[in-house]
Design a protein that fits this description.
10 strands; 21% strand; alpha/beta; TIM Barrel; single chain
Length: 244
């Protein structure tokens, strides 16, 4: 499929800092949330504005443990478009890290992908409001605010103005990682305060055994609140291997 480019934009001159991209050479799925189980391509951007202790992608930001020269490359939007459009898979997931840090470069990327017939989902921590150019048909946001139990000060991870912008967009689902009934109580407080809907709950864990155990802890309480429950398909299917 040939992608048209935004008028006046040289896509070879626009760069993004990328941690990894996958799903073309070895097919995979969106692993969680509203599109869980759908075939998907992933562009994982490097860098984050938070430092959650339970983060499972610390190679995108924690330079005390990882070497950014090995974990990130600067790639052109043109190259990313060529890569994504080489696959018939419709869904492109842009994740991180925190992808919305790099919004200036994301606008031409997304515009070109949409013109090529793709649809785009952003996975974001919900601390940065999306620019107007990203609030268009074909784009959805999986917003995952980080509560205190995830190892982050909520004074930094819960940004009211940004959450309000996602709610107002009508293009967002709100996904929370949880491991206990107490986490669900805190999620309910945030959902009520900021009118977050729909709410998805994902059990914490990086092994199949942990995901299963936590799912059983949470399932009845999530159902009682009439929320959505999502698993972590990449963990169950691929043992949380990178690039799957």
């Amino acid at each position: 499929m040939t992608a048209s480019r935004p008028v006046g934009i040289d896509l070879t001159a626009v760069h993004l800092i990328v941690a990894e991209r996958f799903g073309v050479e070895v097919p995979t799925f969106q692993g969680e949330g509203p599109s869980g189980g759908h075939p998907a391509l992933f562009i994982r951007l490097s860098r984050c504005n938070l430092s959650c202790t339970k983060c499972d992608t610390k190679y995108t930001w924690d330079w005390s443990q990882f070497d950014p020269r090995k974990e990130a490359t600067k790639q052109t939007v043109a190259g990313l478009v060529t890569w994504a459009t080489s696959s018939p898979v419709e869904l492109v997931v842009i994740t991180g890290g925190e992808p919305l840090i790099q919004q200036a470069g994301l606008v031409p990327l997304v515009e070109t992908l949409l013109a090529a017939g793709k649809r785009v989902e952003f996975e974001t921590n919900g601390t940065i409001a999306p620019v107007r150019e990203l609030l268009v048909d074909g784009i959805r946001f999986n917003v995952s605010p980080k509560i205190a139990s995830f190892g982050m000060d909520e004074a930094k991870s819960v940004v009211p103005a940004a959450l309000e912008a996602f709610v107002a967009s009508g293009r967002a689902a709100f996904k929370f990682v949880a491991s206990s009934a107490g986490d669900l109580d805190r999620i309910a407080e945030l959902a009520d305060s900021y009118r977050l809907t729909p709410v998805w709950v994902m059990p914490e864990g990086t092994t199949a055994e942990a995901i299963t155990a936590t799912t059983r802890v949470l399932a009845d309480a999530v159902a009682a609140r009439h929320w959505h429950l999502t698993t972590r398909l990449h963990v169950l299917a691929f043992a949380d291997a990178r690039g799957r």
